[in-house]
Design brief:
single chain, about 350 residues, alpha+beta, Jelly Rolls, 17-stranded mixed beta sheet, two-stranded antiparallel sheet, 19 strands, globular
Length: about 350
């Protein structure tokens, strides 16, 4: 490469390397750089987007008036840390986070996801902080809570609840908290006032103003009962059929997500999924999606997906099947994604 000497007024000589102007050479150089840089930028963008997508949640079902951060929520919206979700008098939304935890918000609820940081490779270092401002919701703990109970916290005013299990319901009106444990154990604490532990099947009430806590008779959880009946064997759909569309989805989620806790074998679980799909073939896409996002492992997920797609009268195109499979791993799916689950319900 030629060298040019440039002499400045102070007579300091600086040697500059330069290319003699050549239009063709510049064009070739530009094209070469474009071929090299574009893939690098693409890889960089993908690598930057993966952690963000791994810390979000997908909507499974939604109905009525549901807003996120003051705006109407779309079914393709990805829930993330910092989001506040408000439901109207007829609003409901069911969300599965990337660690497989489930948030099932009921009407007239104000809920904020204060923090959600999930590291699939190191779930014990992950963290989830939820804030029930008012209203009620059902919760199924995911990998964050199951790997380290202290890392998943639910706040209600000055009280905090820690889940040492996998399914519970919460209600809060600004002063009185109502909780019930479906599967597992919960510790409810009002700092400096009281702390109570509720176990499988227990229910309780706490007043954050007085600090008084009492155990109360557990109301019949019709969704939990429907999930237990589905487990069979054989699967009993009577209670399941009596649920609303959203509650049917939640009953199936409870069954699939808590398979081990409920002592349900893969065979019995597949029989339940098959029975639901046969009874509601128009909901096959939703049923298949649920089995992929909350099932315990890859083998079970494949078994349940095959069960759905092989049910007589069910047709799901290959592209949809592939997208359903992709949803199993948040890091491999697109940030926007199509509206799979919202397009169907279980009538």
């Amino acid at each position: 490469m030629p060298v040019r000497k440039v002499v400045y007024r102070d007579e300091i000589q600086v040697e500059l390397h330069y290319l003699t102007y050549n239009k063709k050479l510049y064009e070739e150089l530009a094209m070469s750089l474009k071929k090299i840089i574009s893939p690098i930028l693409l890889l960089l963008l993908v690598s930057l987007s993966l952690p963000a997508m791994a810390n979000t949640g997908r909507i499974i079902t939604m109905s009525g008036d549901v807003k996120v951060n003051g705006q109407l929520m779309s079914k393709s919206y990805r829930v993330k840390a910092g989001d506040q979700i408000n439901t109207g008098s007829a609003g409901k939304v069911n969300i599965v986070m990337s660690d497989k935890s489930v948030l099932d918000l009921q009407p007239n609820t104000k809920f904020k996801l204060e923090r959600f940081s999930f590291n699939k490779a190191a779930p014990k270092k992950s963290r989830s902080i939820m804030n029930l401002l008012s209203g009620s919701f059902r919760y199924i703990s995911g990998l964050v809570g199951r790997s380290n109970h202290a890392n998943a916290t639910i706040r209600m005013g000055t009280a905090t609840a820690g889940i040492r299990g996998s399914y519970a319901t919460f209600g809060f009106d600004g002063s009185v908290i109502n909780v019930a444990v479906g599967i597992g154990e919960m510790t409810l604490e009002i700092p400096g006032k009281t702390k109570v532990t509720l176990k499988d099947g227990d229910a309780g009430e706490a007043n954050i103003l007085t600090g008084k806590t009492t155990k109360t008779p557990a109301a019949v959880d019709k969704i939990m009962k429907a999930a237990e009946a589905l487990a069979g064997p054989p699967p009993d759909l009577a209670a399941f059929k009596g649920l609303s569309e959203e509650d049917k989805a939640m009953a199936l989620i409870i069954l699939v997500a808590n398979q081990e806790a409920m002592g349900v074998s893969d065979t019995n679980l597949a029989n339940a999924v098959g029975a639901i799909t046969k009874e509601f073939p128009q909901s096959a896409t939703l049923v298949a999606t649920i089995t992929q996002v909350v099932s315990k492992d890859e083998a079970t997920a494949k078994l349940l997906l095959d069960t759905v797609t092989e049910t007589e009268g069910v047709t799901i195109d290959d592209a949809t099947i592939q997208e359903i499979k992709d949803r199993r791993d948040e890091s491999s799916s697109s940030a926007g994604g199509g509206d799979l689950t919202g397009s169907a319900s279980i009538p």
